[in-house]
Q: What sequence folds into this?
């Protein structure tokens, strides 16, 4: 089977990578003086205390981390195919700060506040959720940015209740979202079809097995948790996840690779063995499905280059001789 470079893996301007990562240094941040000028010193101190408490709680907040992984997976297509520059921030000095998504273009800033509780209310006045939403909108407007502000809850009934009770003065830019909570990432994926679909897009094949979906989501979670979550580009997080082994995550930048004529000739000569390339990975099959698998590293890695080197060195003539190289 042909080992030619697949179309989606053609050359791309990966020189822009550093430029995209550097967006993290220019992301719209909120300074003390801006907040104090708009709302006064008392509100600034409230916000600083809120930020300290939120940052401390976020270290072990599974619900927030799972939701962020969902958003990272959802945004990955824009980054990989559209070359969008997107920054994710968590627990920075802001009124709605559990997750902020900032695109390089002048699209609205997306703010998310997550509440994994059975009882949540908008309330009124200082330090209420509705007031935080209102002040976040005003703060963004002072920076000439529009807002989409979302309250995320783990109960569908609570989502409906809060939607019905939303104060009139924040309805223009606010919404309530349901995102389920469970003890494991795979259980959440099973209950959130759009989340699972987004992770499948990131996976190494078009119809990934359950274990590869779980592996990709888990590696993406680890990449997010080990990043600077105050200012992380989606590209940087995807790259970190892809570089893990195994990750079964497609390369976040399309780069050219060369199977090599000699390697191709050897693989094509092995009886009952076929292979193809998809999403930057080599997928193989033996005797029409008697055996099949995926190399646990993508074709843009040093490991794939070493795989070719070993095949050329040992020149396997049967599947049995090749099999040890496919693990």
A:
């Amino acid at each position: 089977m042909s080992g030619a470079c697949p179309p989606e893996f053609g050359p791309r301007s990966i020189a822009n990578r550093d430029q995209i990562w550097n967006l993290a240094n220019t992301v719209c941040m909120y300074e003390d003086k801006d907040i104090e000028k708009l709302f006064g010193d008392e509100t600034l101190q409230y916000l600083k205390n809120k930020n300290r408490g939120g940052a401390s709680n976020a270290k072990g907040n599974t619900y927030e981390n799972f939701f962020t992984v969902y958003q990272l997976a959802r945004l990955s297509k824009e980054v990989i195919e559209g070359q969008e520059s997107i920054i994710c921030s968590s627990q920075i000095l802001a009124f709605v700060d559990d997750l902020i998504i900032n695109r390089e273009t002048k699209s609205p800033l997306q703010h998310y506040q997550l509440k994994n509780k059975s009882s949540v209310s908008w309330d009124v006045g200082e330090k209420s959720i509705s007031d935080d939403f209102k002040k976040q909108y005003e703060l963004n407007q002072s920076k000439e940015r529009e807002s989409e502000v979302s309250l995320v809850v783990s109960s569908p009934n609570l989502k409906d209740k809060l939607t019905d009770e939303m104060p009139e003065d924040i309805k223009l830019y606010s919404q309530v979202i349901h995102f389920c909570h469970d003890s494991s990432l795979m259980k959440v994926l099973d209950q959130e079809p759009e989340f699972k679909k987004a992770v499948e897009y990131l996976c190494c094949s078009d119809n990934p097995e359950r274990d590869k979906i779980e592996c990709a989501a888990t590696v993406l979670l680890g990449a997010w948790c080990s990043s600077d979550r105050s200012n992380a580009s989606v590209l940087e997080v995807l790259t970190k996840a892809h570089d893990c082994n195994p990750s079964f995550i497609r390369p976040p930048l399309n780069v050219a690779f060369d199977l090599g004529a000699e390697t191709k000739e050897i693989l094509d000569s092995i009886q009952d063995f076929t292979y193809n390339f998809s999403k930057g990975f080599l997928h193989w099959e033996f005797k029409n499905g008697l055996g099949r698998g995926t190399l646990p590293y993508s074709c843009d890695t040093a490991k794939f280059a070493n795989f070719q080197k070993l095949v050329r060195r040992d020149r396997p003539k049967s599947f049995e001789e090749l099999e040890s190289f496919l693990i």
